[in-house]
Design goal:
The protein is of the alpha/beta class and 216 residues long. It has two domains: 119 residues, Response regulator (Rossmann fold, 3-Layer(aba) Sandwich), CATH 3.40.50.2300; 77 residues, Arc Repressor Mutant, subunit A (Orthogonal Bundle). The chain contains ten helices and five strands, in the order E-H-E-H-E-H-E-H-E-H-H-H-H-H-H. It has a five-stranded parallel sheet, sandwiched between helices. The N and C termini lie far apart (36 Å). The C terminus is likely disordered.
Amino acid sequence: MQFIIADDHPLFRGALRQALSSLPEEAEILEVGDFDAAKKLVVERDDIDLLLLDLTMPGGTGLSGLVTLKALQPALPVIIVSGTDDAATIRHAVELGASGFISKSASMETIGEAVHAVIAGDIWTPSDIDLDQAHDPEIEALINKIRTLTPQQTRVLTMLAEGLLNKQIAYELNVSEATVKAHVSAVLQKLGVDSRTQAVILLSRIGSDALTSEAS
């Protein structure tokens, strides 16, 4: 099996590696310490069985980083690793496509349990967190809009957030500028906004809200 550990804290990467190494399956474990390196691996490797992703590592943008990576590899299982057990962040991560959520205070046994569950195709979240109590109508409405985007439309949205022009997006996706313009129009319509800037601001709301929860 192939795993990616994406976290900027070497000690925690080591703990995750130890937990993964204890699994019965033989595994190749790749480690990265920033979001750009994680993104590069996800683009280059289509054989990854699981990504363990820290929300707040350098270059990361909270849950919008999850959106970016899931757009690149929609079928890739992702477990979020976080320093907070905030119920809203956990719920929103799952709604945006995460397969699991592990607190950085979790035991080796719990980490192993989560990884086993996700590899088996299940969704794993901490059993002591009541996700039904986490309800933010505004953010959930935004998440529901983002979930209506196709993977290609989501990629276009995340590239807009990176500041890329239509010509650059067309090159990256190997499509025509006309196709990019059609994707941008569809994104704006589905998000209910009038401009690229407004769309990027909406996406950043997801990232900034998660980072605020992480820091609090």
